[in-house]
Design brief:
- This protein is of the alpha+beta class.
- It has a single domain, classed as Catalase core domain (Catalase HpII,  Chain A, domain 1), CATH 2.40.180.10.
- The chain is 31% helix and 17% strand.
- Strands 1, 2, 3, 4, 5, 6, 7, 8 and 9 form a 9-stranded antiparallel sheet that branches.
- α2 runs parallel beside α3 and α2 packs parallel to α8.
- The longest helix is centred in the first third of the chain and has 37 residues.
Length: 387
């Protein structure tokens, strides 16, 4: 009797699991067909600015200030994102000698030119946490002594060109309106509402939830062992492009990082210190660009969509070298903590485009000013040249 019951229950559960699996496959297939139709070109090759974007941006700035106050430590106001640095190091960015003529724009206009830079490597969270926690990782590059008029007319940044990236190819929101809804929910401590703002399934952002979950990835073995992406698009002269930075160990002497103790809270800083300071070995990357082909679905205003590499492969434009150095001093850490990175610290040839970049201009500037004022830190001084 009992045996028969368990056999019957097993058959029922088996059929239920099979039904759920078939429904899941059906849902996946329908989703693939839907997005294949939705994400088809051509697309605009110019910006399209919604009328309510400025008002939403002001609300996001208010939420960002709330976040930095929620996550401040006992003495300092931290960044609203990428609060924890693994290191802020000196770098060199050398334009390739054989660069194609159409890529010779802005800071890439002179083949062979070497720019001195500050490079900040970080975790993405607004609150410093153990490196083993799933998180995004960021790279910000500040080229120094860059001549020419900049998009932001600030004396402190008049000679700088910034590039801001993190280690996932797409963003988990499509535009400023969704960013406001998502960010407000997180600032209120209601993370579930970030992707499910109401009971109406039409408002659910399941696809963007999966992007966010993929973005919160396990830590790499080192901050110099992962790829960083611009996410949002930029100009490169007349072209629309995206940037990425990829590790290029072939450009450096052979090096194997000793295994790190990932139970330590700051093992990514330790890995960077091991390579650059203890073993005195450089780290190498290549800076690459991907051009928009507007005949295909490569949108400017939706950074949640990845541009196809099959249609438009990335092209290397410069080599980045982090030379051996001592970087983990109190003075340098404080100096770099006071640095402000903004993609709008830029020549017109590298103009940021798209809604998320337009949002960054206002939010980064406002939060930076607020942070420096609360920390009583100087922000009217340009970044120093690495010695």
């Amino acid at each position: 009797m009992l045996k028969a019951f368990w056999l019957w229950l097993g058959r029922v559960l088996g059929k239920l699991l099979l039904t759920l699996a078939l429904l899941g496959l059906l849902g996946w297939g329908v989703g693939e067909l839907y997005y294949a139709q939705k994400f088809s070109g051509p697309v605009a090759n110019e910006e399209q600015i919604p009328p309510d974007e400025a008002a939403l941006t002001r609300l996001i700035i208010e939420d960002a200030v709330r976040v930095v106050e929620q996550h401040r430590d006992n003495t300092r106001v931290l960044r609203d994102a990428h609060a924890k640095a693994h290191g802020c190091v000196k770098g060199e960015v050398q334009v390739l000698d054989d660069l194609d003529a159409d890529l010779r724009q802005g800071v890439f206009s002179e083949p062979g030119k070497t720019w001195q830079a500050w490079v900040r490597l970080s975790n993405g969270n607004a609150y410093p946490q153990f490196d083993r926690a799933r998180d995004a990782r960021g790279m910000a590059i500040k080229l120094l002594d860059v001549p020419g008029e900049k998009l932001m007319h600030s004396p402190a940044h008049a000679s700088e060109q910034d590039f801001v990236m993190f280690n996932h190819p797409v963003f988990f929101v499509r535009d400023v309106a969704e960013y406001r809804s998502n960010f407000a929910a997180q600032a209120d401590g209601k993370k579930v509402l970030a992707f499910f703002p109401s009971w109406d399934p039409r408002t659910w952002e399941v696809r963007h939830l999966f992007i966010a979950l993929k973005t919160l990835a396990p830590a790499p073995e080192s901050p110099v062992a992962t790829t960083y992406n611009s996410i949002a698009p930029y100009k490169l002269g007349p072209a629309n492009i995206k940037y990425r930075v990829v590790p290029a160990p072939q450009n450096c002497p052979p090096y194997n990082l000793p295994e790190q103790n990932q139970a330590l809270p700051n093992f990514l800083r330790n890995a960077l210190y091991q390579q650059l300071s203890l073993d005195r070995m450089p780290a190498c990357f290549e800076l690459q660009v991907q051009k928009q082909n507007a005949q295909y679905y490569m949108p400017i205003e939706d950074p949640s969509v990845e541009w196809s590499e099959k249609i438009s492969p990335f092209q290397s434009v410069a080599r980045i070298t982090l030379p051996p150095q001592d970087f983990d001093s109190r003075e340098q850490n404080l100096f770099c903590d006071n640095l402000s990175f903004n993609p709008w610290h830029s020549l017109a040839e590298h103009r940021p485009i798209g809604g998320i970049n337009r949002l960054r201009k206002a939010v980064y500037e406002a939060v930076s000013a607020y942070r420096h004022e609360r920390n009583d830190a100087p922000q009217g001084q340009p970044a120093a040249q690495p010695e």
